[in-house]
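Changelog note: in this version the structure field was regenerated for every chain. One regenerated record is shown below for reference.
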Amino acid sequence: MFKVKLTGHDYRYEVFQILNLFFDKSQLDFNSSDSWDIESVLDLNRNAVECNIYKDGDVFIKKQIKLHQLDKKDIKNAIKMAILNAAEEYTGKKMPWGILVGIRPTKIVHELERNNYEREEIRDYLTSNYHVSYDKALLTIEVAEREKRYLTKKENSVSLYIGIPFCPTRCVYCSFTSNPLGKNQRVVEEYLDALIREITATLDCLNEKNINVDTLYIGGGTPTSLTSEQLRRLFETLSSRLDIKGLREFTVEAGRPDSIDEEKLLAIKEAGCERISINPQTMNDETLRRIGRNHTSEDIVEKYELARMIGFKVINMDLIIGLPGEGVEEIRRTMEKLRVLSPDNVTIHTMAIKRASVLNEREYSDKSLSAERMYEIATEEVRNMGLYPYYMYRQKNMVSPLENVGYCKESTECIYNIQMIAENISIIAMGADGVSKLVFEDENRIERVANVKDVGEYIKRIDEMIENKKRAIDIISK
């Protein structure tokens, strides 16, 4: 247990963020009043911050940083930097992202570019101001450059997200609003009724205000948990009020192979969707069983080949590094199988232990020593497959302090993913747990309008959700 003391400031959250990179949260105690092991100090008389780590009552490690500016952001960053330096020396661990714990590193690059920074200046800014490693700084710049071409949009436009919160079974790492189909079959039709009401009202309102729809993304859960008839009903609602052919992009997460059949894929294709995700997470059968998936790697191959035969232009596949029980050999096996399939997109996630996941309930806290090597193998392999990184985000509570990166072949980027990370366009989200983000670029401001998470509550309160959506659209149309 490490007892932590704050002296001269109350930036407890910032101190916790950095210490949690090195120590499990259960090891950190901010409530001790009699003694402490780690002290974070802000001394405005000397314009300095310090981090002191004690051993046997004496200072064992001391790191000091002089303050050149006294605004809150600079003070917070200096506090984090001092703690990072002390903790790295104490543990012998280097954090590749330094003090950069935010989930959207490329936004920093875009902001610096707007201020006329050159590539080398941006790299130096990331390495010096945040202690980001040279390699991660270059990755961030590379991704930001790929994003740029898709950040333009028509004026008076939004993108749409539709959530289907059902899955065949719940994966142990999942924290999304996702309800296993087994005990929720009768609720699905009621949910679809409510969702179609929200979609209809939303699209009518957008059309009334002459707001253009740029991209459409149907996610979950697993949208293909719906039957082919239910999918067709959903698509008919959309096409009756939305010019599908006029969309810049239309994506459906087909997700798990145990939810896919030929009829469903045909329904998706006939609706005008050219981009789907078939997400294995791993190609190792024992791991699939361990994480709660009732299918095999061969099922993944079969459904992938079926989707190719039907003619989808872009197929994405997601992988997770650091799944329970996996190591270097398992990731090599997964990448060998993916190489044969040659998907257009591969998103490599580093597993995060989310608060709402089964793994968190089981207090799973394995900080895999091999995660970084597994990640290197996966990223090297996708680059050898001719894919390049085009979007990136980070999460808290990862099994290793890495990142999630989407890789793709030329011109097969997911524009919606880029928009979500860049936060350059308003996203109108429908369905249970849908969070609309209203972007006001001129004011550098984002407003969020959230639907309720619980499916039953969503169904009961659908009129309220619709009124909230109408108000949100009114706000962005002014």
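Spot check on this record: The first helix runs from residue 12 to 22. Confidence is low (pLDDT under 50) at residues 354-368.
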